[in-house]
Description:
Strand order of the largest sheet: 6-7-8-3-9-10
Number of domains: 2
CATH architecture of the largest domain: 3-Layer(aba) Sandwich
Distance between the termini: 34 Å
Order of helices and strands: EEEHEEHEHHHEHEHEEHEEEHEH
CATH topology of the largest domain: Rossmann fold
CATH superfamily of the largest domain: P-loop containing nucleotide triphosphate hydrolases
Largest sheet: 6 strands, mixed
Number of helices: 10
Oligomer: single chain
Structural class: alpha/beta
Helix content: 25-40%
Shape: globular
Amino acid sequence: xxxxxxxxxxxxxxxxxxxxxxSFSVKKGEVFxxxxxxxxxxxxxxxxxxxxxxxxxxxxxxxxxxxGDGVKARTxxxxxxxxxxxxxxxxxLELLEYHAGLYxxxxxxxxxxxxxxxxxxxxxRPIDDLSYGNKKKCAIIQSVLHEPELxxxxxxxxxxxxxxQNRFFELLESLNDKGVTIFFSSHILSEIQRMCxxxxxxxxxxxxxxEDITSLLSKQMKKVRLVLKVEVELALPAGAQNHHCxxxxxxxxxxxxxxxxxTWLSKQDLVDVVLTEPDLESIFMNYYQR
Length: 290
């Protein structure tokens, strides 16, 4: 049985499309990426999957339960939304103990304290006094406290500093090693590269491609800027496009194997070279739309 199944799922807000004809599945035990620029439809798809929104047409299943039967499924799901809102007068400890009670966990104090120490979260301060990053830590703990079979994460690293991001990824890796399925929605390509086995790419509410990460990396575009020692006519490598030249300074986009690009660069008479990762919007425009 798949952990998640989208079956020709569409969600419209009146005449405005949220998502349209989504059809793909996530295997049990998989770390699956869901990537696309902001506004592509990632959150709409997730909220419809969880039964928080009613689909316009089509269906979806979580752990074998259809969207309309989401209450049973959600007992086995941990959900981390992109924006977190809690009861402001509660402390983190009170909120997390309340959450544990909803799942029938009699005494979760020890586990709460262990996770709070791991993420350096104060449990005694009112939630209204916490920074956005600390509220996000509380939400992370809440999403894993009841030991779900499936974690659904929507832009989960917003507000976390690099140290906490790394701890979060290490936690996810340890949970996946125990068999937890992870559905990881993000617009940050490096996060998907680190965490995921496969990824569905969504643009304007529609799935553009479903790729395994190895294949995606082999097609990934890089932005290349270089300065030559002298002005010469440059013979670009295969896969180069959008070339711009000002004197000895050159820039272009490159799609192809990284090793081939490095080999080509090693043969140039360089003063300086910079390789940068483009945003996903650039990748879509330069690769998937083609």
